[in-house]
């Protein structure tokens, strides 16, 4: 069995999202506006909100979401420790299945971090 590449998953999904932006532009503009307003700094920082998004991605078992949010967390300067503590909460709340996707998030982080430097 081949291992998943989160870089490849993000790339492939990004291409499909571009198609959706062309074919259902109003829906995608609405989703983009919601994402932008939801993640902007407020009482919680953008980094804290991205950690929450990662936790939801892990517990919902969404590979592409994990990739996109790990990429954002790297961009925002999240520490390995912040990511690991977030994944610990995911495991507590989601049990064994969340633990398997927490491991996927670690793989995504380790795959994407060198590319970000």
Automatic annotation (TrEMBL):
Keyword Oxidoreductase applies: yes
Limits of the Carboxymuconolactone decarboxylase-like domain: 25-107
Any Pfam family matching the protein: CMD
Top-level taxon of the source organism: Bacteria
GO molecular function: peroxiredoxin activity
Key words, A-Z: Oxidoreductase, Peroxidase
NCBIfam families reported for this sequence: ahpD_dom
Name of the protein: Alkylhydroperoxidase
């Amino acid at each position: 069995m081949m291992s998943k590449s989160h870089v490849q998953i993000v790339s492939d999904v990004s291409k499909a999202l571009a198609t959706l932006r062309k074919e259902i532009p109003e829906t995608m503009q609405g989703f983009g506006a919601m994402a932008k307003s939801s993640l902007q700094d407020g009482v919680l920082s953008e980094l804290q909100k991205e950690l929450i998004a990662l936790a939801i991605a892990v517990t919902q078992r969404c590979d592409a979401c994990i990739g996109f949010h790990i990429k954002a967390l790297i961009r925002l300067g999240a520490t390995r420790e912040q990511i690991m503590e977030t994944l610990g909460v995911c495991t507590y709340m989601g049990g064994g299945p969340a633990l398997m996707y927490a491991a996927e998030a670690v793989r995504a982080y380790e795959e994407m971090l060198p590319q970000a430097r």
